[in-house]
Amino acid sequence: METLLEQQRRYHEERERLEEAMGQEKLLKKATVKERINSDHRVDQFLRRYQNSTEALHELYEDKDGQRKKEMAALSGPNELAEFYTRLRHIREWHRKFPNELQEPMQFEFLKLQETREHGGDDEAGAVFFTDEEGYGKYLDLHECFRTFINLKFTEKIDYVTYLKNVDRLFDIPKEKKAADYRRYLEALLEYLIDYCQRVFPLTDLAAEFDRVQVEFEEKWESGTFQGWKKDAESAMVKQSGARLDLSAFSSPEELASLGLDRLKSALQALGLKCGGTLEQRAHRLFATKGRELEELEQSMFVSKGRTGAGAAVAAAAVASKGGRSAAQKQKDVAALEARIYYLFEVVGEQRLDTRENVERRQARTADELEEDAQAADALDSDDSDDDESTPYNPKNLPVGWDGKPIPYWLYKLHGLNITYECEICGNFKYRGPKAFQRHFSEWRHAHGMRCLAIPNTAHFANVTTIEDAQKLWNRLKGNKDKQRWRPDADEEFEDSIGNVVNKKTFEDLQRQGLL
User: Fold this and answer.
1) Cα–Cα distance, 144 to 188 (Å, whole number)
2) CB-CB contact of 150 with 158 (8 Å)
3) Which of 275, 354, 404, 500 could be cross-linked to 268 through a Cys-Cys bond (beta carbons 3.0 to 4.6 Å apart)?
4) Is there a contact between 264 and 279 (Cβ–Cβ < 8 Å)?
5) Which residues have C-beta within 8 Å of that of residue 77, sequence separation ≥ 6?
6) What is the CA radius of gyration of the chain?
7) What is residue 406's three-state secondary structure?
8) What angle do CA 211, 44, 380 make, to 5 degrees?
9) pLDDT one-digit tens code per residue, 326-369
């Protein structure tokens, strides 16, 4: 049984240990995608546990029921010793009832987590579920969404690679074709992307990001600049069938006639008026409603079907207005789904590109190669620990490649790795292959050997590997430098009054003798 103060102490300790564990987790080196994903999930679990401890602490400090205040008063009151012995008696009674109950300190729990993290325990394998196609978070598995997409009525038959390339180009689809089946496709695609992001990027707050995306979408939707749903004045006035027409922009029936028979017919039907006749008759009939209420129009202008005149027109107008609002709301909902999908594809852009490359690579391979890869993957999953500890078979002592296995022998000979070069300046160190031999002249070992010989490591000493040759070449270079060095006595020239040019030494001798 814990007191409230002991609970507060435990929650504070738990918060501090969780902060330390999260810091160590972030500093841990992750070599693979699997390690990075598992590490992020562990940090996410730490964060959730930290939030729960903080909320519990907040409730204890609020002390709504007054129990904490009473406990503090009991510990600091005049009978504090009686309170102490009462609690001690309760503790002894509890241990008498449960003599074999062991209480493990919280420190042991985090020490076990640290050992598991550093040594790769069993809980890491399968910490997050991924399909075989997803490759533990490296690729996307959009096959279900692809099958849904190609079964839409307006889509063309494309392959999976083309679908991966154009899956986020939703703005290329005409908005007239974005019906109920298209919305179901968007909902399935959005559901998969959210689930994938929660598994691969558990630390990303998708709810907050969706709120930000929704705010940006509302601004673009109101201004009519959202991609794929941009407002077009002509299409809003001409192309929408059954929509009412704003007559304030027209000053004569002739201007209305320029819209054509179909558009005038839909505008008359929206008002419940007769829509027959020639183009000029329809234009005059529609222009007659400008600036007038429907009740003011003549009964002969309306279509009579169970209702008379203005009543039928008002009902038709109400239905058209209600239908227009509901259709606009449906379009906005579909556009909002597209906005979220655009954001999620930005998040998984790297995985999407890797998926395309992986699919293209697999399509270019034969069935036997795919079967070998599958068997190798199964063997790697089943014997992962054994493969890490065992030494690969390497009787010819070939260099090890990036996969931890010896490179092929033909590649070994192609790069000249069967030829060794010895350098005396480097302490008789041996280099495999001409590439490594040429590169070592600019590396630290050769530079250190030249520095020990008091010889600068310049381009003059390229391909020089023995100490004797290096010293001979250095002495020769010093002799050439001495000959090329400026000597004032021999190289500086003077001219006497007659015009004779002599060097400095001769000039000074003649001057001392008084012969100038």
Assistant:
1) 9
2) yes
3) 275
4) yes
5) 83
6) 43
7) strand
8) 120
9) 777 888 898 999 999 999 999 888 888 888 888 888 887 777 76
